[in-house]
Amino acid sequence: MSAENPGRTGRPPLTERRKAQTRLEIAHEAVRLFTAKGVAATSAEEIAAAAGISLRTLWRYFPSKESCVLPLLTSGIEVTARCMRAWPPGEAMTWLLKEMERCSQDLVTHLPTLFDLVRLTQSEPGLRAVWLQAHQDAEPVFAAVLAHRAALPPDDLSARMQAAMINTALRVAMEHHASKPGPPTEEAVLRTVRTAFLTVAQGLPD
């Protein structure tokens, strides 16, 4: 995601798509191993071997074994940012939610692994740090998109506050849904996200 070009659209080049796919494959294998063995007992060498790449290649993609999960953690953030870029001025939060629902097909195949990972972030400090960092990095991107949408300066306080609320709503919704028993379904996840975002839109009670 790029905060410098909030209006950027279009499909990434083939090379970038291949890199993104490789990163996702690594993330899936990392989560599988972390779930089975725990983070401490899983080595970077094991993750690389499971993904069918060399350890050297793994380190070209990620700086640590914990960060291997980042593509899964940022998937929902990236969809949200993409939908926010398309959000027309004057349209309510419900427009954004409908657009997010329309774009959610990109995430469906990753849902079981993603929620296994979000559950792990609640008990594995290293993964929790990666999860929180992903949202910290997302916040200025959201703020830039919102400021651009409202024709405000990039550092406008209201845009930053709105970005923080949307960012927190997304994170809490995912954590809340991950705490529920049973496999996640697209419909149930979208319902949880919708509730969280509409709660933000309603503001604080009197």
Automatic annotation (TrEMBL):
<dbReference type="InterPro" id="IPR050109">
    <property type="entry name" value="HTH-type_TetR-like_transc_reg"/>
</dbReference>
<keyword id="KW-0238">DNA-binding</keyword>
<dbReference type="InterPro" id="IPR041347">
    <property type="entry name" value="MftR_C"/>
</dbReference>
<dbReference type="Pfam" id="PF00440">
    <property type="entry name" value="TetR_N"/>
</dbReference>
<dbReference type="InterPro" id="IPR009057">
    <property type="entry name" value="Homeodomain-like_sf"/>
</dbReference>
<keyword id="KW-0804">Transcription</keyword>
<protein>
    <submittedName>
        <fullName>AcrR family transcriptional regulator</fullName>
    </submittedName>
</protein>
<feature type="domain" description="HTH tetR-type">
    <location>
        <begin position="20"/>
        <end position="80"/>
    </location>
</feature>
<dbReference type="Pfam" id="PF17754">
    <property type="entry name" value="TetR_C_14"/>
</dbReference>
<dbReference type="InterPro" id="IPR001647">
    <property type="entry name" value="HTH_TetR"/>
</dbReference>
<keyword id="KW-0805">Transcription regulation</keyword>
<feature type="DNA-binding region" description="H-T-H motif">
    <location>
        <begin position="43"/>
        <end position="62"/>
    </location>
</feature>
